[in-house]
Design the sequence.
């Protein structure tokens, strides 16, 4: 029998990519995609009745507050979605026996470790976005037994949303010179690869519930990534890249964001 899979936050870069890849051609899965206007995860009663009316086998939660800079200024908005909204989802999943696949972030770590982070490493977020995402993880672990928390890093889509990849392309078209930081190292992750991994969790029933790390394999600085993006798009001759140690931001970011995939 087909499995019913709900995808929340479907208008974001991950939600749109899962839709594009799997909504029509994935044998064995019946997807329901809902955007925030259809299902707001912060509206608890609504959410719980939606789950009870539809009965899903899995919920892939792509809904999140992802503006790392703005989260420093209005952290309550980040907590409302990334912590309280996720708690509501976990409760809805518990009540309806739905397996939750939730996406979390490298920013739950402080970045002081000298090696890649494993799923068991101690968390210690250094910005409000990371703190709110960690609180979401804690709620899930407290409420559910049947869940996957997939931590990923430096997610980008070439087609959808606001991400570093698309920001650099846009900037390269309008600016003569770009200053890019070498202060952080991480693994940029193509949202297509993450989408495939997420769906593989549903297909491979032997994978254990709990926290998993998934990122693309190549570690680099944001400067290196910008260089690759320009090359990829034949824009290297259009704009000069300048290495900077610090790029001024509101939020602190972990120096080492590399996740060890198991
Ligand atoms: N982007 C990144 O670099 C990384 C992301 N992640 C995690 O991956 C997941 C997917 O991220 P990504 O696709 O990039 O995020 P996006 O910001 O592209 O998408 C988030 C989606 O969530 C929706 N949303 C916001 N609030 C609510 C709400 N209350 N109820 C329902 N939907 C809501 C947004 O809708 P609207 O736009 O209408 O507000 C948007 O469609 C997130 O959990 C994120 O934390 C992890 C590591 C890296
Ligand atoms: C745009 C820009 C950014 N930077 C710096 C700022 C920052 O240190 C780093 C990354 O910038 P961004 O603000 O684009 O990326 P940021 O929003 O920090 O990306 C993060 O998003 C959240 C949602 C996650 O979960 C993380 O995994 C990570 O992908 O690059 C430059 O040095 N030059 C630039 O021109």
Sequence:
């Amino acid at each position: 029998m087909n499995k019913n899979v709900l995808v929340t936050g479907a208008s974001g870069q991950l939600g749109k990519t899962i839709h594009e890849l799997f909504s029509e051609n994935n044998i064995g899965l019946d997807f329901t995609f809902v955007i925030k206007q259809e299902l707001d995860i912060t509206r608890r009663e609504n959410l719980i009745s939606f789950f009870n009316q539809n009965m899903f086998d899995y919920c892939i939660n792509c809904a999140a507050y992802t503006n790392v800079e703005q989260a420093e200024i209005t952290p309550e908005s980040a907590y409302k979605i990334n912590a309280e909204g996720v708690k509501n989802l976990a409760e809805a999943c518990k009540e309806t026996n739905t397996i939750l696949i939730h996406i979390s972030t490298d920013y739950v770590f402080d970045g002081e470790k000298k090696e890649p982070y494993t799923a068991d490493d101690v968390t210690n977020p250094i910005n409000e976005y990371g703190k709110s995402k960690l609180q979401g993880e804690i709620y899930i672990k407290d409420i559910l037994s049947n869940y996957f928390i997939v931590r990923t890093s430096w997610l980008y889509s070439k087609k959808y949303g606001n991400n570093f990849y698309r920001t650099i392309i846009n900037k390269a078209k309008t600016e003569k010179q770009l200053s890019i930081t070498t202060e952080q190292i991480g693994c940029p992750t193509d949202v297509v690869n993450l989408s495939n991994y997420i769906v593989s969790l549903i297909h491979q029933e032997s994978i254990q519930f709990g926290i998993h790390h998934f990122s693309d394999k190549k570690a680099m600085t944001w400067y290196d990534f910008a260089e690759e993006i320009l090359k990829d798009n034949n824009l290297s001759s259009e704009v000069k890249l300048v290495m900077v140690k610090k790029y001024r931001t509101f939020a602190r970011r972990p120096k080492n964001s590399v996740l060890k995939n198991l």
